[in-house]
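Handover notes (outgoing to incoming on-call)

Open items:
1. CXXC-type zinc finger protein 1: sequence verified, structure written out, both below. Nothing else pending on this one.
2. Nothing else urgent.
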Amino acid sequence: TSDNSQLLSEKDLPQDSNVYQDFFGEISQHLPGLQPWMNDTEEFLFLDSALQKQAVDMKKMQNSKKKVERKKEKKQKLMEKSKDPKQSDARDPGLMRQCLGPGCVYPSRPGSKYCSDDCGMKLAADRIYEILPQRIQQWQKSPCVAEEHGKKMLERIQREQQDTQTRLKDIECNFHELEAIILRGKQQTVCKDEEVSGNGNSVDLQIFCVSCGQPISVHVALRHMERCFAKYECKSSFGAMHPTCIEGATRLFCDAYDPQSKRYCKRLQVLCPEHSKDPKVSDDEVCGCPLVHNVFEVTGNFCRLPKSVCNHHYCWEKLRRAEVDLERVRALQKLEELVEQEQKVRTAMTNRAGLLGLMLHQTIQHDPLTSDLRSKVDS
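CXXC-type zinc finger protein 1 structure tokens:
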């Protein structure tokens, strides 16, 4: 070069960063020894400030990515070693353990404490034969408070079952007595004189229906309320997937099958307005309702008005039958609840003294002179 040659300014230098990256890559390949002692700023001294900063940031990002990849590779190698114990055992025979089976001298299988399933079963059987007799003796010697409570609960449940059974028998007797009373009432003769005297003593009053709220006369109040209630009751359904089968029970649930919902109706058969309709009443049919004095005293007489005219005893057979059937349903539900309670208590008692419970649980009395507070009778 001549003396008149001038240095290039920053404006004359190319502004493409890729040129400097390629140039620096070639230098680092030919002179790898320069990399350790060159810091981020010294590597790019020949660049301007903006390009130098961009190159330094790029190098830092590459270094951080390399560190993350190295950590991932190390974790992967450790996971593979822990998941594959066969390779570690095969590479290092010193890590192979002896089988824990009684009298066995063979090495255990990879990932197991035994060489075979038989050795594990033998050791488990020896443990049971060694520990179980002592636990049974401790169980028999020390009183179990939970066992005593369970026995008392069983006695109480059995007493309630007997009381409910007797109550159910009494209700069945009432059911048959009611049918006999209804049959006797139907055998009475119609009396027209009672109809005339009954209509003469009546007073014209009005009340509101409990279902629709319309004002109605007292004479036809029961008829209107019964029909209005049946109209609203048909809009709702009470069903189950299976029919009810109760031994010795007659005329309890409706059990009419609905093909649309694929369910059986679970209303009382007497009160079901959807599947049972009231029979038509003839003009010569007598009411037959048993008359009472002061609400509860039975007189032994029957209402002999025509059934189509008598407004005081409208649907009395259906209501009396529904009352008896409802008591029967309550008694049967009570029996079912008691059976479930008995089953739970018996299951808890059998599990408490079972093999698994005796092997896993143990009560240690550190001070034999101190009495167990749990066995103290509650005041």
